[in-house]
């Protein structure tokens, strides 16, 4: 009885914390199509200005991959009114921080300033949209920066080619088949006019959302937004092609040799639906059940109890059009990759045939409640969520309501989704092994 009362108290406290986290916001459009979202939070004297553009690696010419990520770097080079090399100096000199990131689906830029520098942040992002300087010096400079990033993250990193290899095997038609960093040969071959054309097509107000979150005066902020963004011309409508992948009906087998590793890895990857679907949220739960932490099913069984693997993991690579669910393991001798895959499959079969317990379901819901609270605990997290839910999900209020989907997932749904997507004939099995050339040396 005492335990039940304590559990009920914890649930009520958690529910209260989640309710307290409801995010209030205002949204509207400028005449040029720029969508604006304002989220006022006066709890700290800071403010974030962020702009998300609906352009990512999937919008690239197959012969010019890497452009979206390249622009993440290039558009810090300077503008007509911000000299080359001055962007970061202006931000740090005014007590701010900034960053940017790119995915297959979107590109995101932001600055965090003391609230008295909000106008500066808005001006800088309007400069990026209206007056970017795209010249050969900037292109050549950032080309070298991107090449070094590729060397560090992919070419010279242990297991760095795992995601690229999975993507190219899982997708044959969709642009998700290449990585965001793209091909260095494509970037080398590109002419300056191609970069300018890419900017003109995608970096327009009607392909963007501006989020201002933090401590600000709403009336003054709207005036500044109109002042700096209102005169920017609307871009041409962007025609977006739909790419459909045929279902995977038999196991895809592949092998990749990596000179940077000594221990093989087995990878099982399944194509899954868009991150916007309910099934994608259920797959998040499944990923957590199988491999999130040392108490997860795979880790406890394969690493702790049977000591068959040095490491085991699973994650959903969620995207706007499709997702990829990836499981991986590093065998510990005398176990092999085949042994690991057999154990992984046995745990998936359990999910497909047995209902998880109420206790396990409650643990999942508590974990996702906590993640929800944490994701909205900073203005950076709130701004990112607001922009993402508008741009990729077409529903800003998911920042408040998505958690309800996770709260209502049932054990029966988990079993059904596992049966639907996680079958041997619907997957890629990648043997990721040390290079045979390295082994000979």
Overview in brief:
The chain is an alpha+beta fold. It has helices at 2-20, 67-74, 87-93, 118-130, 136-155, 162-170, 184-189, 192-202, 218-229, 278-291, 297-305, 337-353, 358-375, 379-391, 398-407, 411-421, 436-440, and strands at 26-29, 35-40, 46-53, 97-102, 107-114, 208-214, 252-258, 265-273, 309-317, 322-331, 427-434. β1 (26-29) and β2 (35-40) form a beta hairpin.
Description:
With 441 residues, the protein is an alpha+beta fold. The protein has two domains: 22-229, Metalloenzyme, LuxS/M16 peptidase-like (Cytochrome Bc1 Complex, Chain A, domain 1), CATH 3.30.830; 252-436, Cytochrome Bc1 Complex, Chain A, domain 1 (2-Layer Sandwich), CATH 3.30.830. The protein contains 17 helices and eleven strands. The chain has helices at 2-20, 67-74, 87-93, 118-130, 136-155, 162-170, 184-189, 192-202, 218-229, 278-291, 297-305, 337-353, 358-375, 379-391, 398-407, 411-421, 436-440; strands at 26-29, 35-40, 46-53, 97-102, 107-114, 208-214, 252-258, 265-273, 309-317, 322-331, 427-434. It has a six-stranded mixed β-sheet, with helices on both faces. A five-stranded mixed β-sheet has the order 7-11-8-10-9, with helices on both faces. A hairpin with a 4-residue loop joins strand 9 (309-317) and strand 10. Helix 1 packs parallel to helix 13 (358-375) and helix 10 (278-291) crosses helix 16. The longest helix has 20 residues, at 136-155. The termini are far apart. GO terms for molecular function: metal ion binding; metallopeptidase activity. Pfam families: Peptidase_M16, Peptidase_M16_C. Residues 1-20 form the signal peptide. Belongs to the peptidase M16 family. Keywords: Hydrolase, Metalloprotease, Protease, Signal, Zinc.
